[in-house]
Specification:
Order of helices and strands: EHHEHEEHEHHHEHEHHHEEHHEHHEE
Domain OBG-type G: 2-257
CATH architecture of the largest domain: 3-Layer(aba) Sandwich
Structural class: alpha/beta
Organism: Rhodovulum marinum
Radius of gyration: 23 Å
CATH superfamily of the largest domain: P-loop containing nucleotide triphosphate hydrolases
Keywords: ATP-binding, Magnesium, Metal-binding, Nucleotide-binding
Distance between the termini: 25 Å
CATH class of the largest domain: Alpha Beta
Shape: flat
Binding site for ATP: 11-16
InterPro entries: ATPase_YchF/OLA1, Beta-grasp_dom_sf, G_OBG, GTP-bd, P-loop_NTPase, TGS-like, TGS-like_dom_sf, YchF_C
Number of helices: 15
Strand order of the largest sheet: 2-4-1-5-6-7
CATH topology of the largest domain: Rossmann fold
Bound molecules: guanosine-5'-diphosphate
Strand content: 15-25%
Number of strands: 12
Largest sheet: 6 strands, mixed
Helix content: 40-55%
Length: 364
């Protein structure tokens, strides 16, 4: 599955947020109770109103949302790249994630100690980013040494690696993260193999006080500006509120949200933003038994998309019958869409689109 690592300085609200994420009613209702893989790893349902709509039309007995994984990566402090705190272990945990949700303290509270002694989320973001950049530089220098011999011997892959490594090292030395480097299609594979921490997409999570959840505050506005300049994403959330909401049932939660002037739980926005950040999209399978959402990266061809359900679907793929979400809902279901000529037969080359309702035909 796809994993987002939650990072941030100590005392910014990471654990509060993680607990809320993994205990939320949506996670529970998802037919797969929040499963503790490890104490700091949780799976959450990706909220998607389209799935409920499809289930309603088809009269599906069960609704099974797609899910994504969050990892609470505590202990990242200044000096982590030099092994301070629990440095190396945590850097290794981040390396395994597909994206980073960076929690920033945007709330003032004299009772909660700030490790740097002041509330300044933009500066905090730089502290963490600097550690990650230093860790990347370390690993790049090690790699460069390791391939010296191969490069001299004219090994093509090693030469390509060296060129990439030198390019990204120059960016890091100029204070820019690896994600600022533009990578060509030809280099994409080699680039991924480098597994650089600052190459991962970042979502800034502004943790504001309870009464600021709707509008944010000056701190979160500064973060939003920084995120925009970096081409990163940001969301405003109150971890405290989310923690409270996670203990309510769906109706109570809705009432609580409207009292606060919020349209949607912050966690829902966070999960959706994480999903988008990862370049993911959803297709559906819909029948009387269940309506289910499945996650694929954008640009996935039909056989590979089928493989997410079962390996046999991919190996024995014949074709897919596809109805776009809007057609399915607009026309009132599968049969009506079919009658209107909106069910398409698609072959191996079909690139699945977000919202497609899919039916796969395959040789067992
Ligand atoms: P972590 O070290 O980043 O995991 O931070 P925690 O989630 O443990 O939170 C540190 C402290 O800050 C706890 O006492 C939380 O209750 C408190 N806290 C978290 N979010 C908020 C918030 O939005 N407002 C206030 N006032 N306190 C918060």
């Amino acid at each position: 599955g796809f994993k987002t690592g939650i990072v941030g300085l100590p005392n910014v609200g990471k654990s509060t947020l993680f607990n809320a994420l993994t205990r939320t009613a949506a996670a529970q209702a998802a037919n797969f109770p929040f499963c503790t893989i490890e104490p700091n790893v949780g799976e959450v349902a990706v909220p998607d109103a389209r799935l409920d709509k499809l289930a309603e039309i088809a009269g599906s007995k069960a609704i099974i949302p797609t899910r994504m994984t969050f990892v609470d990566i505590a202990g990242l402090v200044k000096g982590a790249s030099k092994g301070e705190g629990l440095g190396n272990q945590f850097l290794a945990n981040i390396r395994e994630c597909d994206a980073i949700a960076h929690v920033l303290r945007c709330f003032e509270d004299g009772d909660v100690t700030h490790v740097e002694g002041r509330v300044d989320p933009v500066a905090d973001a730089e502290v963490i980013e600097t550690e990650l950049m230093l860790a990347d530089m370390d690993s790049i220098e090690r790699r460069l040494q390791n391939i010296v011999r191969k490069v001299r011997g004219g090994d093509k892959e090693a030469v390509q690696q060296e060129r990439l490594l030198k390019e990204v090292l120059a960016a890091l030395e100029a204070g820019r993260p690896a994600r600022s480097v533009e990578v060509t299609e030809d280099d994409a594979k080699a680039w991924e193999m480098l597994q650089l921490l600052t190459a991962k997409p970042v979502l800034y999570v502004c943790n504001v006080a309870e009464d600021e959840a709707a509008e944010g505050n000056a701190h979160s506005a500064a973060v939003a500006k920084m995120a925009e300049e970096q081409g990163a994403a940001s969301v405003v959330i109150s971890a405290r509120i989310e923690e409270e909401i996670s203990q309510l049932d769906a109706d109570e939660a809705e009432m609580f949200l409207s009292e606060l002037g919020l349209e949607e739980a912050g966690l829902d926005r966070l999960i959706k933003a994480g999903y988008k950040l990862l370049g993911l999209q959803t297709y559906f399978t819909v029948g009387p038994k269940e309506a289910r959402a499945w996650t694929i990266p954008q640009g996935t061809p039909a056989p590979k998309a089928a493989g997410v359900i079962h390996g046999d679907f991919e190996r024995g793929f014949i074709r897919a019958e596809t109805i776009a979400y809007d057609d399915y809902v607009g026309l009132g279901g599968e049969q009506a869409a079919k009658d209107a000529g909106k069910m398409r037969a698609e072959g191996k080359g079909y690139i699945v689109r977000d919202g497609d309702v899919m039916h796969f035909l395959f040789n067992a």
